[in-house]
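Reminder to self: tokens first, then the designed residues, so the page reads top to bottom the way the pipeline ran.
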């Protein structure tokens, strides 16, 4: 079976036009937003707030899906916040996820997620799926764990757009 390509992207560090150019350059035709809350603080990232983001993606002929079930719930996010606090790292400066967060996310979120079933739900002509959250570094974001599950279960190569 032939699968679409999987990419991930975060918003921090991008200017609006650079962000959308990166999606276009990667050939993204399906965009999966895996944030809990679909807003981003600060005028610089207003383009990533849900309504504006969806409007721009529609202009680019990129299908949008919010998959809230892949967002870490509050209890799991609090595990990471505690790790950040103990290491004295601000969220936007974090470059890795804590082992406790990774374990909890895999156990409580990814254990029920089937990459194969997810792909079966997509339009049959989908070529490139982007998983989106906010963190700059994929290693500091749960999107890397989602991508890892695709790589492991379906032997799909994943690209992290930076």
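Designed residues (162 positions):
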């Amino acid at each position: 079976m032939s699968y679409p390509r999987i990419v991930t992207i975060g918003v921090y560090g991008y200017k609006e036009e650079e962000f959308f150019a990166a999606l276009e350059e990667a050939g993204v035709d399906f965009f999966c937003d895996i944030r809990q809350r679909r807003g981003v603080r600060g005028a610089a990232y207003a383009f990533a707030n849900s309504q504006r983001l969806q409007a721009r993606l529609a202009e680019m002929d990129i299908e949008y899906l919010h998959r809230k079930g892949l967002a870490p719930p509050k209890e799991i996010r609090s595990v990471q916040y505690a790790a950040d606090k103990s290491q004295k790292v601000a969220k936007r400066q974090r470059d890795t996820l804590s082992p406790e967060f990774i374990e909890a996310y895999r156990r409580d979120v990814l254990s029920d997620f089937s990459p194969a079933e997810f792909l079966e739900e997509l339009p049959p002509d989908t070529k490139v799926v982007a998983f989106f959250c906010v963190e700059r570094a994929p290693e500091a974001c749960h999107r890397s764990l989602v991508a890892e599950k695709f790589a492991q279960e379906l032997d799909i190569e994943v690209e992290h757009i930076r």
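The chain has a mean pLDDT of 95.
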